[in-house]
Design brief:
Elements (H helix, E strand, L loop, with lengths): L8 E3 L7 H8 L5 E9 L4 H12 L2 E11 L3 E11 L5 E5 L10 E7 L16 E4 L4 H25 L5 E3 L2 E3 L3 H4 L1 H25 L1
Helix pairs in contact: 3-5
Length: about 210
């Protein structure tokens, strides 16, 4: 089992020198900054917000959450915010890859161009801007893309496979290594590569 290596992500500031490049990456013209109340489970932003909408009203707001690994790369992760019935927008979901999971202010770019099944979402690939010429950083981002592509392909296969049933936390059924051995092997390989590169980045820059 490969232990995950978590890089030190921080909140991206709209005053960053590469801010215009980030806006261009998403195809937008403006950032918004939103209060973070990380009371709900990480990795389930769509489901968390939809549950709030059902319980208390309001709307789901699709966004790209912008984060920074200082001096290494900028990351845009597709995310969901909750617009309360009062009109105030907040982020209720705990960060997935952050040491500072408490309250703060997160930078977002609103984007309604991607259609998401909020109850049964397939992950949307993160987008990145590399900030340093470093083969290990490029390797980490490439390994992430390979890992993400394999995971999304597996989820799409399982979605239509009657051997699996959907649960609150994903799917239940036979081991993926048995039903989809090639995809399972690619997920394991790329995960190992990603965190191997992350360890090199952590040692070199932090």
């Amino acid at each position: 089992m490969v232990e995950p290596v978590i890089l030190p992500f921080s909140d991206f500031q709209p005053t960053h020198i590469r801010a215009n490049d980030v806006l261009a990456l998403i195809g937008s013209t403006a950032f918004i900054q939103v209060a973070r109340y990380s009371n709900w489970r990480a990795g389930r932003c769509y489901q968390n917000v939809m549950q709030c909408v059902r319980l208390e009203g309001g709307q789901i707001v699709p966004e790209w959450m912008i984060e920074l690994v200082d001096g290494v790369y900028i990351q845009a992760m597709h995310h969901a915010l909750w617009r309360k019935p009062s009109g105030i927008i907040i982020d209720i979901t705990a960060p997935q890859t952050r040491h500072d999971a408490g309250r703060g202010v997160t930078t977002f770019i609103e984007d309604h161009s991607i259609i998401v099944d909020y109850d049964n979402p397939i992950p949307i690939q993160n987008r990145h801007i590399q900030l340093v010429e470093d083969g290990d950083v490029a390797g980490a981002l490439n390994a992430y893309r390979q890992h993400d592509a394999a995971r999304r392909a597996l989820m799409q296969m399982i979605e239509n496979d009657r051997r699996y049933t959907r649960t609150r936390d994903g799917f239940s059924g036979p081991p993926h290594s048995v039903t989809y051995p090639e995809l399972s092997a690619e997920i394991d390989r790329s995960y190992k590569d990603l965190h191997g590169f992350n360890q090199k980045i952590l040692d070199r820059y932090f």
